[in-house]
Amino acid sequence: MKKFVYLLVAITVFSLSKTYSLLDDYEKNNNELIAGEIDLEINGKNLYGEAIIEKNISCKIYHENVTLHLTQNSLKAKAKICFFNVSGQSAKISISIKNSSGHEFVLIDNVTSKSLNNTCINLTGNGVYLIPCINYTLEISFYLVNETKISFDIEFFTGEKSFYDVERSKNNFILIK
Prior knowledge:
The chain has about 180 residues and is mainly beta. The chain has two helices and ten strands; from the N terminus they run H-E-E-E-E-E-E-H-E-E-E-E. The protein has helices at about 1-25, 115, and strands spanning about 40, 55, 60-70, 80-85, 90-100, 105-110, 120, 135-145, 150-160, 165-175.
């Protein structure tokens, strides 16, 4: 009987030590706890699909400034702009981004509208993020070469890790009167 009790105690101690080691597991995240949101505003609001560029113009060149802003409680985030359903083949489009301190970066220069269809352009580079509470100005320039109208949909995507926000702008157009 004593052998049975010793065996039972040994099994109990062994099983408790294994249970303890299972409960003692941990994950390392470089001392970072990530919680929050990403909320991108375009021209001071969430878009919900509405157009941001609807212009009748009298000449072939048009510039539009679009303000990108992460709200106060947002995490820093990477960003890109995507073009879809682009009409017109030969319009030339240039895009640059400027932060509030005036540093400007040319992202594309004189790219044809045909080549922009279903294309995304990174607004932030390696290690560069949009920072909350800072306004970024996206300057989009259009030169309508042979067209009298160009129309397009735009999607702004911001994200970091598993957090993201997508703002869609549909039925944008520029029309020469």
